[in-house]
Structure formats: C-alpha cells, structure tokens
C-alpha cells in the first residue's frame, strides 16, 4: 500500500512530465492519474473544503485548471449584465442579413446599441449602459426575452 | 411655422392616401406610392394616418425647418441628415428651428416620406391633399416642390402636440433628439437584389399563351427607366395573347398588371388612369404595392402567384400589424 507522500510524489512527477495518463496496479491498489480538461460547473460555490478535496484527488495541472475556472467564476460576478428593458423578441441586427449591432469581444460605450427587442411591431433599442468588452451574448435572434433578463455580459473597463 | 425648400430634389410632392370617389368623373386617385410608409410616418408623430406628407423620390431635397418640430422619416433610405448628422428613420425626431434637413444618396428603396406633427397646412382638393401632377391640382399648388417654396405647417394638437411636448422635454442642445425605438416595416428592396412581388391572376389571364403564363411566374422582369408614379413598365419577357382580344375599356385598380400589344407588361400605380382597355394578366397583392413602390427603375422583380384568399389574409394581417403598432406607440407616451 502506497503512503500519501508516495502518491503525492507520483502525481508531482507525472505533472512535470508530458505523460497524459498513468495507471498503476500494486497489491490490489489501483491508482489512475490523468491530465484532463476539467468541465466547468456553473455557480460553483467557492468552498475551501471542496478545493482541498480536489487537491487530494487530482493532479496539480488539473487543480490549476480548476482554480482558473473558479477565478473565472469569481470574475464572472464582476461582469456587468445588460438587462432587458422590455418583454420581446431578441434581434442582434437592425434587419435580417445586416451586420449585428455588436460582436463578441467588441468594446462598447454606455450609449452603444447592443440589440433590439421587438414587441408589438415596435423595435426597442437596448444600450450597453457601461463601457467595456462584450464577453458573452446570451440570446439568439428570434428568442423571446423576459423583462429584466440578462442579455449580454460585459467586462467593465 | 413652416418649412423652406432650399433644394427641391428630383420629385418631391405632397401626397396622402389618395383622392377617392372621383374616378367616375375621370379624376385619378394619386396619393403616396408607398402608403404603408406614409401611414407609419404620420402615426409616429401623432397625426391621423392619412394626413399629407412629403413623398421624396430618388434624389432628395434640402429643407430648412423654420420652427421647432416633431417629424418622422420613413420609406426608402435616402440618407437623411440634420445639420450634417445622420437622422434615424422610422421614429419620431424632434428638431430645433433653423435646422437643415438634407437627403443624400439612395441606400435602399427609392421613396422617402416626411411627416410633421400637426400636418402641412394645405387646402384639400376633392377631399385630398395629394398632388395630381399631370392635371396640376392638389398638394402644393398642384405641382412638385421647387426651390424657394415655403410650406406652412399646422400647429400640433391632440396626440401630435403631446408627442411634440414629450420630446421637447427630452431635448438637449444637440441638433435633434429621437426615440430609442422604431417602427417595424416590410423589407425595403435593395437596388441590386431581385424583389419578389406576390400577385393574383388578372381577369384576362386565361387569354394568354401557355408560354406567356409560365414566363410571367418564372422569368424576372426589369423595371424600365420610363417608369413613374402612373405605372412601372417591365421589360424582359414578351407576353402574348393566344389570339387578338377585342376589349371594351373597364376599370383598373392599384397594382393591376396590364399587357399592351408590344407584350411588355405595365403595373398600374398611384397615378394610374381610371379605366383601361388592355388585357390584365395579373393583380399585385395590395400588401406588396408598398414594396413595389420602393423598387428603383433598373432593378428586377419576379412575380409569385398567390390565391385571392391568401392576398386577403395578408391584407388583414398587415392591417392588424398596423393597429398593433399604433397601440404600441401610444403606450410609449403614457
């Protein structure tokens, strides 16, 4: 039976090597170590216990990836949400076939029109309300939007 | 209290929804080519939807707005600017006295409509403010606008006054202020794209050769340069009758597609004659007349046949849409 320190040593070595997948069978004990992209879970609570558990179970690389994800989640809470001003149908461009008002990664100013919401044949412009970079577009053309729903995520300047 | 014409443009004339009730006396209907755009322009500024508005064709005028006014520009995009700044279309725009409204390059469609809150102060002739250009009656002195003309504007009242006051409060010292919403509209034809126009069969459809009937619905037609407010002449396909047809002149309507002996069809529009003796191969669906009116000479169209029931269904749906839009706009001013 391997000791905790031995397991840690193995993980460390694998992490520093180019090995992607490692399996060891010894005296009925099986260890499997792999470097995999960690799938993100939305709204992961930032739980130190959870983080420790991860440390003990996964390789350092995986931990780094995980913490990067967590950092993103933390940052995410600082992202500005552009909220819907009405109930209506989402359109990213002024008319079919036209260029969208904004694209991913685009810098916007407070009065930049980011989309239109159609209600009763009237198209309502939605302004960014903040300066920053568009990092996520949460609706597609033709989708129905509720009042107050987040439409875009903007990383403030 | 007025608008001064600095440059008249190619053909800028006063129009409304037409002069109905006098065709039996040989008086043509006239009115806006694109009645949808005219109606929406008036609705936006709080006027009655059939109020007179300026129809601005292909090459727009330069106008001086001599009084603080609420206006709306709809129809084809003729690059309107106020004091050099691009004016958004299909929405109410409040402008300060002394502003210069100028139209430029034709970006889409070919006819813009300019409505002003309160309406233009003109006498109605036979119940209409439309200009009957050939007869020289109605509108502004029965003719297209000329340089130096001064158009009187009525004081806004009721809804048009409320809306003018609303935007006046929002006004900051810029050249103009407009709403953050705009009215929906049917697609405005682009110059280089083929536009599909829906039609029903005309009264004499069956008298045409099988080839002509097939070509009518499958070939594309070019709108000839000599097209005008009376009608669009189409070229590209020669439509022929099975055998010569002796016809007594009978009523024609907005959107009637008639075929003279040379085989090139003509679509009758706002300034159409009251009766015609040429066989009628088709009838443009009324909802597509405003789209057709925005097709520029030189551009191409194709016909798509629909049933009378479908044309009627589209018409009712369009009218419902306009009512919905009217309500939505009213709600914006509560």
Q: Quick gist of this model?
A:
With 157 residues, chain A is α+β, with helices and mostly antiparallel strands. Chain A contains three helices and ten strands, in the order H-E-E-H-H-E-E-E-E-E-E-E-E.
Side by side, the strands of the main sheet of chain B go 14-21-18-19-16-15-22
Q: Helical segment tally of chain A?
A: 3
Give the low-pLDDT segments of chain B. none
SS-derived structural category of chain A: alpha+beta
Structure description:
Chain A: InterPro entries: AcCoA_biotinCC (IPR001249), Biotin_Carboxyl_Carrier/Decarb (IPR050709), Biotin_lipoyl (IPR000089), Single_hybrid_motif (IPR011053). Chain A: It comes from Pelosinus fermentans JBW45. Chain A: This protein is a component of the acetyl coenzyme A carboxylase complex; first, biotin carboxylase catalyzes the carboxylation of the carrier protein and then the transcarboxylase transfers the carboxyl group to form malonyl-CoA. Chain A: One of its GO terms (molecular function) is acetyl-CoA carboxylase activity. The complex is a heterodimer of chains A (157) and B (334). With 157 residues, chain A is of the alpha+beta class. Helix content of chain A is 25%, strand content 32%. The longest helix of chain A is centred in the middle third of the chain and has 17 residues. Chain A is elongated, with a radius of gyration of 23 Å. About 13% of the residues of chain A have low confidence. In chain B, strand 18 and strand 19 form a beta hairpin. In chain B, the strands form 4 sheets. In chain B, strands 14-21-18-19-16-15-22 form a 7-stranded mixed barrel. Chain B has 2 domains: 184 residues, no CATH class; 121 residues, Cyclophilin (Beta Barrel). The longest helix of chain B has 25 residues. At the A-B interface, strand 7 of A face strand 13 and helix 5 of B.
């Amino acid at each position: 039976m391997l000791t905790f320190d031995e397991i840690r040593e193995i993980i460390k070595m694998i992490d520093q090597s180019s090995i992607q997948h490692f399996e060891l069978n010894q005296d009925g004990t099986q260890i499997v170590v792999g470097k995999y992209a960690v799938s993100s879970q939305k709204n992961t609570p930032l739980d130190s216990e959870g983080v420790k558990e991860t440390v003990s179970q996964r390789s350092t690389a995986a931990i780094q990836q995980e913490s990067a994800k967590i950092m993103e989640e933390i940052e995410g809470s600082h992202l500005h949400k552009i909220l819907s001003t009405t109930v209506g149908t989402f359109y990213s461009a002024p008319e079919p076939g036209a260029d969208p008002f904004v694209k991913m990664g685009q810098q916007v100013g407070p009065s930049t029109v980011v989309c239109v919401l159609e209600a009763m044949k009237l198209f309502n412009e939605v302004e960014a309300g903040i300066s920053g970079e568009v990092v996520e577009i949460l609706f597609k053309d033709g989708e129905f939007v509720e009042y107050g729903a987040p439409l875009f995520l903007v990383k403030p300047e | 209290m007025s608008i001064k014409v600095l440059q008249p443009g190619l053909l800028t004339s006063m129009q409304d929804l037409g002069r109905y009730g006098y065709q039996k006396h040989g008086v043509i209907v006239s009115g806006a080519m694109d009645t949808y755009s005219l109606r929406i322009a008036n609705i936006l500024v709080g006027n009655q939807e059939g109020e007179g508005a300026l129809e601005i064709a292909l090459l727009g005028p330069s106008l001086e707005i001599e009084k603080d006014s609420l206006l709306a520009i709809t129809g084809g995009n003729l690059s309107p600017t106020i004091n050099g700044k691009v004016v958004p279309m299909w929405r109410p725009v409040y402008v300060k006295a002394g502003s210069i409204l100028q139209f430029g390059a034709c970006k889409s469609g070919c006819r813009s409509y300019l409505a002003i809150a309160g309406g233009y102060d003109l006498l109605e002739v036979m119940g209409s403010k439309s200009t009957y250009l050939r007869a020289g009656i109605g509108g502004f002195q029965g003719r297209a606008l000329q340089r130096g003309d001064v158009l009187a504007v009525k004081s806004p009242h009721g809804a048009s006054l409320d809306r003018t006051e609303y935007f006046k409060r929002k006004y900051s010292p810029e050249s103009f202020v407009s709403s953050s919403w705009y009215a929906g509209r049917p697609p405005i034809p682009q110059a280089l794209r083929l536009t599909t126009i829906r039609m029903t069969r005309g009264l004499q459809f069956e008298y045409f050769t099988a080839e002509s009937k097939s070509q009518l619905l499958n070939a594309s037609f070019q709108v000839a340069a000599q097209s005008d407010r009376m009608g669009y002449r189409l070229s590209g396909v020669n439509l022929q009758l099975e055998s010569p047809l002796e016809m007594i002149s009978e009523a024609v309507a907005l959107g009637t597609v008639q075929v003279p002996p040379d085989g090139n069809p003509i679509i009758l529009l706002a300034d159409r004659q009251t009766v015609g003796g040429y066989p009628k191969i088709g009838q443009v669906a009324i909802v597509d007349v405003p789209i057709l009116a925005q097709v520029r000479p030189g551009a191409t169209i194709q016909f798509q046949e629909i049933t009378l029931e479908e044309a009627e269904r589209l018409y009712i749906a369009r009218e419902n849409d306009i009512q919905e839009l009217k309500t939505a706009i009213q709600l914006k001013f509560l």
